[in-house]
Amino acid sequence: MLRNIIVVFTIFLITSMPVKAAPGYVIIDASKPNVTSYTSIPKSLTDVDLDKLSGQVSAQAGVGMETWESFKNNLHLLVEAKIKKNEYPELIIKEGLADFLEKFEGIPLGLTWNGGIALTYNDYIHAKRTYQQYLEKPDSVARISERNRDPVHPANHLKVLVSNMSK
Questions:
Q1: Given this model, what pLDDT does residue 160 score?
Q2: What residue stretch is flagged as signal peptide (predicted)?
Q3: Pick the residue with more confidence: 20 or 126?
Q4: CA-CA distance, 109 to 94, in Å (whole number)?
Q5: Predicted confidence band of residue 91 (pLDDT cuts 50, 70, 90)
Q6: CA separation (Å) from 49 to 45, 120, 133?
Q7: How far apart are CA 31 and CA 35, in angstroms?
Q8: Residues whose CB falls within 8 Å of the CB of residue 32, separated by 6 or more in sequence, listed in order
Q9: DSSP 65
Q10: Distance set, CA 55 to CA 49, 59, 65, 136 (Å)
Q11: 94 close to 159: Cβ distance less than 8 angstroms
Q12: How many Å apart are CA 118 and CA 136, to the nearest integer?
């Protein structure tokens, strides 16, 4: 249901907004344990449309809406805390995710349980499968060693920063 709302909203954004507006809100869908999806909503949304969207979001279990400012100020809690096993500790994902949401309003971006990024259907399926394996036998799931073969490697989808691990 929410995915259909987001698709319709994305089409509305693409067809009716001649000028890109800065995000005003972020929808956070944490209803699935294997992927948390984030979708930015522009400030230019009318109050009527925002109220309608807010009502639809609040009716969904595990789905919420944050102001853009709150989202940016609480990236650690709203992004990094969703990662159950960080397989990409050398990457700083939160800034790349925020940059993506700011640039591509209305397009959902998934943060996987292991710190990966899901954009495509296959990415989401991979996250679901590996999370199930992780639940059954946590030590059996390991990061794919070749970046180009890893469907959810963050650097394949986002411009991410490499952290200084010696700190």
A1: 65
A2: 1-21
A3: 126
A4: 12
A5: confident
A6: 6, 27, 41
A7: 8
A8: 62, 128
A9: E
A10: 10, 6, 10, 37
A11: no
A12: 22
Q: Which residues are within 8 A (CB) of 67 and not within 5 positions of it... i.e. 6 or more apart?
A: 24, 25, 26
- pLDDT score of 22: 59
DSSP state of 62: T
Token pair, residue 99, equals 């940059």
- Residue ranges per structural domain of the chain: 2-160
3-state SS track over 68-87: HHHHHHCHHHHCHHHCCCCC
pTM above 0.90, yes or no: no
Query: What is the residue whose two structure tokens read 């639809």?
Result: 56
Query: How many alpha carbons fall within 13 Å on the CB side of residue 88?
Result: 25
Considering only the C-alpha atoms of the chain, give the largest distance between any 2 of them, rounded to a whole number of Å: 50
Q: How many C-beta neighbours within 10 Å does residue 138 have?
A: 10
- Sign of the dihedral defined by the CA atoms of residues 41, 42, 47, 48, in that order: negative
Please name the residues in contact with 105: beta carbons below 8 A apart, sequence gap of 6 or more: 13, 20, 21, 23, 40, 41, 42
